[in-house]
Design brief:
Structural class: alpha+beta
CATH class: Mainly Beta
Shape: globular
Strand order of the largest sheet: 2-1-6
Number of domains: 1
CATH architecture: Beta Barrel
Order of helices and strands: EEEEEHEH
Largest sheet: 3 strands, mixed
Number of strands: 6
Strand content: 35-45%
CATH topology: OB fold (Dihydrolipoamide Acetyltransferase, E2P)
Radius of gyration: 13 Å
Distance between the termini: 36 Å
Helix content: 25-40%
Length: 92
């Protein structure tokens, strides 16, 4: 995803610890961690750890790219990346 195309796309990562909202264009790289049950996000030399499967995070980042291409005129797009355990806790 190019930086200029992703300025208005945000991803809300939700795991059992809480929420983290990031601008998609700030994410430089993602790397699997701990046997694919967690993911490292790299932002300007900083490494963040989210307890979400790598494949899920990759799919959401790809979805963010597609959303920006389809909805290029929208000033703000938010995509939620949540694991099933967090979904269950939010429902309770």
């Amino acid at each position: 995803m190019t930086k200029e195309h992703a300025q208005g796309v945000f991803i809300r990562f939700i795991d059992f610890r809480g929420e983290l909202l990031l601008r998609a264009s700030a994410i430089d790289a993602v790397v699997p961690a701990e046997k694919d049950v967690a993911t490292y996000l790299y932002l300007n030399g900083t490494r963040l750890f989210v307890e979400l499967p790598y494949q899920t995070v990759r799919e959401i980042i790809n979805e963010a790219e597609k959303a920006r291409q389809v909805n290029g005129d929208e000033p703000y797009i938010e995509i939620i990346c949540m694991d099933s355990e967090a979904e269950i806790q939010k429902a309770d």
